[in-house]
Design a protein that fits this description.
The complex is a heterodimer. By secondary structure, chain A is of the alpha+beta class. Chain A is built from 7 helices and 4 strands, in the order H-H-H-H-E-H-H-E-E-E-H. A 4-stranded mixed β-sheet of chain A has the order 2-1-3-4. In chain B, helix 12 packs across helix 14. Classes of the chains: A alpha+beta, B alpha/beta.
């Protein structure tokens, strides 16, 4: 395992960020997509690449961290292979998202934000996914699952426990 | 004016500039609206909501700090709706705010506390347990953070990102999890860190040096001026129970400091109460300095002086002044040496200004601090404000943020380096030829503002004209010329220290030619600026503490130009030994060396008599900052037992020498100076209080005669022509990296006795 302080962007990631920088009149506008590039490479947003992003975009290191910690879609800690995100905004909350979360925590034996010891599943909350018509809604990595019932949720978690690739992936 | 709008606030019809906020319009009309997050020096945020006001036709209360005024707007700042909204905001802010006011440094001068009394409810309705977060977190060497007290106004984080523009405090996480921190929890180290504690509206950020030292109601506030560099930031000396100086706070003066202090100034008060301060006169007996009474010390000095005078004449006596005393003390010192003792040997440590006399130096340096705000181009010639005049760094950053361009000529511009539009890495010895090359390139272009004037055009043509340029000049020189030719307003700043290099003895002449070419010669506020390091280096030159007819110079008195006939040397607030080798014959051969200082120094170690003096906080008088602003310092506490102000010492010496000076007090002296010196025309001691007064420009606008001494120039050398950017070799940057000498010594010494204790 590489020490976090030694983590570095690959040449490819750097190129992507430099390309993103050109898309905006002000380089700092590229900070959100640039952080996605970082997360793509590491699975989360470690500190040293944040500084690299800041240097590429010619902004202060702190400004990148402010953004990275503001948005929940950026993970600040390493996450499991699959990240199950339960929407806890108003519509989903009214339709039982709290119960889903409690059910998931119990089933996986982790706290909200935690990862199973085998590194397979991370369970977390997320802000509104703009799918209120199909509440409650969850995400597995970047894929949506709508109108989730407790039984369905149970099945999803069971499947993810063994899955090699995201079974809900929609190309 | 067309861009004014008329509105009504609390029944008062008033006009405000278009684009102003309700808060600003109310403030200008004398109507108070409370604020936490808003800070006049930073962009509005509207985060705290305490400034909510009622605006007619608006469905809900509006934040006065972000809502701009519009024609016919009707605002109520204290209507029932506004008061209710504000009370609601207060209640929310207090949900999690701890009730530790009795042990909070801010208690007694806390906006949250004051507005809670003013606008809040008697008791909160929230019964839940308050949130618990980290307390007393040391963010760095100067600032302590209490996360529970923070109300997320973001003044500190905006100060770091908008004003200092360096890594500093940030907000991490969001919503109820949001907290102040630093990138990756690195220590918060900045030379402007103290400002965040001052601008924090609550007790979340506190200064380590002031924590638990005093309660605000015990403090006596004295208006003064920071003694740590030549900017002369306005400070308030906060003195606990009249006995101990516990902190310096900013006393905003827009024209000088913009309301900020650097840490060297803010935390540099330990020396006042340092245990190492001299508190008794010392007299050399049997080769050792022994404590004696004032009378014995004075008698010894007078006897020796009279004996030397009789035996060798008054020319065997000399005086060296420092650059930290008040103008009034300099005046008295000059009277003592020149008039009472009758010696022309008087000088101080200073730079070279061609053959300019002090009045001319003042005349040609027209740039001001405030002028930087409107400069379109700033040229730094051998300047490193980050180390030598820190607040200038912020002022220049402010100008750059407003769109000014920056040319750096010389080795190192510190934190401003990365903002430079163009950096000419010219060795310090080559400044003059480089500037000559830029002027030649400007002539070749012929478009600069200065050439519109026929007499200047003719003058510059005659000096630089037959110098062929064209493609011979490097890309950088051409770019500099292009930037200078296009700039409508331009401030060219150089540091006095670079003129101390022999090669730069005539630098001022070449710079004035550059100012002429750039068309800034008559510009008020722009043009040439001479940055000095010490707090009254400008005053001591203005008062002409320089060798008189046939008098010895600083270097001559120290024997650097051959053996000297000097027998007695009076030194006031200076440590000349720092500029010469330790084994100095001239000083060792003196029959009388008197040193007036607060601390022992290398020179004092050699002295026959050492006289302990009062600090700047223990006396009154005036300092002149680098731009020529005369500002007043006031007495915060009586002189330390056993010490005396320099002025009192000189007056006593004069009277024992049989000459009772009639002009004695600071106000008498300054008003006398204002009468006799054109430098202080139309000024008076009483009008200086408050914001100080800029030395008037002596030059009349229509009197444009190019003086003879300008008719020569340092012409560009072939090396300069071809020289492309090269990294400046290390080691030669020493001069600029040295912070002002005596100050730092004092601060360091003070640190030793708890100056920076937590």
């Amino acid at each position: 395992m590489v020490e976090e302080s030694n983590l570095k962007l690959t040449g490819e990631s750097r190129q992507k960020i430099v390309a993103l920088k050109q898309l905006y009149p002000s380089p700092r506008s590229a900070v959100l997509p640039a952080l996605h590039v970082v997360q793509e490479q590491f699975g989360y947003v470690p500190v040293p690449p944040m500084a690299e992003v800041a240097d590429i975009l010619e902004i202060l290191h702190g400004e990148v961290e402010q953004v990275a910690t503001f948005y929940r879609m950026y993970h600040q800690q390493p996450v499991g292979k699959f990240v199950v995100k339960v929407c806890d905004s108003i519509s989903c909350y009214l339709r039982g998202s709290d119960e889903l979360l409690a059910q998931g925590q119990q089933k996986l034996g982790v706290k909200c934000g935690g990862t199973t010891p085998d590194g397979q599943i991370t369970l977390d909350k997320i802000e509104c996914l703009a799918a209120c018509g199909n509440a409650p809604c969850i995400q597995v990595n970047d894929e949506f699952i709508y109108d989730v019932t407790p039984a369905q949720f149970d099945a999803v978690l069971d499947e993810l426990k063994r899955a090699k690739k995201n079974p809900y992936f929609v190309p | 004016m067309a861009d004014l709008v008329t509105l009504t606030i609390d029944g008062q019809r008033l006009q405000a500039p278009k684009g102003a906020t309700i808060w600003q319009a109310a403030k200008d009309a004398g109507i108070f609206v409370p604020i936490y997050c808003y800070h006049p020096k930073m962009s509005p945020l509207g985060a705290c909501r305490i400034c909510l006001v009622e605006v007619e036709k608006m469905p809900k209360p509006m934040a006065a700090c972000t809502t701009t005024v519009s024609e016919g707007m009707v605002v109520y700042t204290s209507s029932e709706a506004a008061e209710k909204a504000r009370a609601g905001v207060m209640e929310f802010l207090l949900i999690n705010h701890p009730l530790d006011c009795p042990i909070c440094d801010k208690g007694g001068e806390c906006d949250l506390q004051n507005y809670a009394v003013e606008y809040g409810r008697e008791a909160g309705r929230f019964q839940e347990e308050k949130r618990h977060l980290g307390k007393a977190i040391e963010l760095g060497s100067t600032i302590v953070l209490d996360r529970e007290r923070c109300i997320m106004c973001q003044r500190c984080t905006r100060f770091c990102s908008e004003i200092v523009q360096e890594e500093g405090l940030i907000i991490r996480e969001r919503g109820r999890l949001a907290q102040i921190g630093t990138f990756s929890d690195l220590p918060y180290e900045s030379q402007f860190s103290g400002n965040v504690a001052e601008m924090c509206p609550v007790g979340a950020l506190t200064s380590r040096t002031y924590r638990f030292k005093a309660r605000p109601w015990e403090l006596k506030h004295t208006s003064s001026v920071c003694p740590h560099c030549a900017v002369g930031c306005n400070i308030e000396i906060d003195n606990r129970l009249g006995r101990q100086v516990v902190r310096f706070m900013s006393r905003e003066n827009e024209a000088v400091d913009d309301g900020f202090l650097c840490d060297r100034g803010r935390y540099g008060h330990g020396f006042i109460h340092s245990e190492q301060r001299l508190s008794t006169p010392l007299l050399r007996k049997n080769g050792r300095l022994e404590p004696v009474g004032w009378d014995e010390a004075f008698s010894f000095i007078i006897a020796r002086l009279q004996q030397i005078c009789q035996q060798f004449g008054s020319k065997a006596i000399g005086g060296i002044a420092g650059t930290h005393n008040t103008n009034e003390e300099f005046y008295l010192f000059k009277r003592l040496i020149n008039d009472v003792l009758g010696s022309p040997n008087l000088d101080h440590y200073h730079g070279h200004f061609s053959s300019l006399n002090p009045e001319q130096v003042a005349t040609f340096h027209t740039a001001t601090i405030e002028g930087l705000d409107s400069a379109k181009l700033i040229v730094l010639v051998g300047v490193n404000p980050s180390v030598r005049q820190p607040i200038m760094e912020l002022r220049i950053k402010k100008a750059l943020k407003a769109g000014a361009k920056l040319i750096v000529i010389g080795p190192n511009a510190g934190a401003l380096e990365r903002f430079a539009t163009l950096h000419l890495h010219v060795p310090m010895e080559q400044f003059s030829p480089a500037i000559g090359a830029i002027i030649a390139a400007m002539i070749w272009r012929g478009t600069a503002k200065g050439f519109e004037d026929p007499s200047i055009n003719q003058h510059l043509q005659s000096v630089y004209g037959n110098f062929q340029t064209g493609d011979a000049l490097s890309h950088e020189i051409n770019r500099a010329a292009s930037l200078l030719s296009k700039a409508e307003t331009c401030s060219i700043l150089y540091d006095e220290v670079v003129t101390q290099k022999a090669a730069n003895a005539d630098l001022v002449r070449d710079l004035i030619n550059l100012v002429l070419a750039a068309g800034q010669f008559w510009s008020e506020g722009h043009g040439l600026g001479l940055l000095t390091a010490d707090n009254n280096a400008t005053g001591v030159r203005d008062l002409d503490l320089l060798p008189g007819q046939g008098g010895l110079s600083y270097a001559q008195m120290l024997g650097l130009k051959g053996a000297t006939h000097l027998k007695a040397l009076l030194v006031m607030g200076a440590n000349p030994l720092q500029h010469v080798q330790k084994q100095n014959k001239a000083l060792a051969n003196l029959e009388l060396l008197v040193v007036q200082d607060m601390f022992m120094s290398a020179t004092a170690e050699l002295a026959h008599v050492v006289l302990p003096v009062a600090s700047f906080a223990e006396k009154e008088g005036t300092f002149t900052n680098w731009e020529g602003r005369v500002q007043k310092v006031n007495v915060s506490l009586p002189p330390l037992q056993g010490t005396a102000p320099d002025a009192a010492i000189i007056l006593e010496l004069a009277s024992r020498l049989g000459e009772v000076l009639d002009i004695r007090t600071p106000s008498q002296i300054f008003d006398h100076l204002a009468r006799i010196s054109p430098l202080y025309k139309d000024m008076s001691y009483t009008t200086l209080a408050g914001k100080g007064q800029l030395r008037p420009l002596i030059r009349e606008a229509d009197e444009i005669e190019v003086p003879d001494w300008l008719q020569r120039a340092t012409l560009p050398t072939p090396e300069i022509l071809r020289q492309e950017s090269e990294e400046y070799p290390n080691g030669l940057t020493d001069l600029l990296d040295a912070a002002p000498s005596v100050d730092v010594g004092r601060v360091r010494r003070a640190e030793g006795d708890g100056g920076t204790a937590r």
